[in-house]
Design brief:
The protein is α+β, with helices and mostly antiparallel strands. It has a domain of about 70 residues.
């Protein structure tokens, strides 16, 4: 005798459906990646002050809410190297704090740009 499943019963009471639903749910969630906003690391202290910022052509944002991340001078090896600005997707609830160089007693130190709540 074939018994018709009770469709109003919870999935845990229907082992066959639960066995199918669980792997499908796991597969669907496997593609979901939650990453924190990208952080930029502060560089070493250097004796040479960074040059003035370069002028940049900002252009049109690629989408609604995109944020312009301005270019900055990075320290690479033994010299300052310009890193061009770029558009970045919005991070709801966060604001962009730009890269900046600070003078301290030992020289200059790059403070990395970052998203801040």
């Amino acid at each position: 005798m074939h018994k018709t499943p009770n469709l109003s019963a919870p999935a845990w009471r229907m082992p066959g459906r639960a066995l199918i639903a669980a792997p499908l749910l796991a597969l669907a969630l496997a593609g979901c990646v939650v990453t924190p906003p990208r952080a930029y690391i502060a560089g070493p202290t250097v004796a040479i002050a960074p040059p003035p910022p370069r002028p940049e052509v900002v252009g049109v944002a690629p989408g609604y809410g995109y944020v312009w991340i301005g270019g900055f001078w990075n320290w690479v090896g033994d010299r300052h190297v310009w890193v061009s600005g770029h558009w970045e997707a919005p991070h709801p609830g966060y604001r962009w704090v730009p890269h900046h160089w600070e003078r301290d007693r030992d020289g200059w130190r790059l403070r990395g740009g970052h998203w801040e709540r």
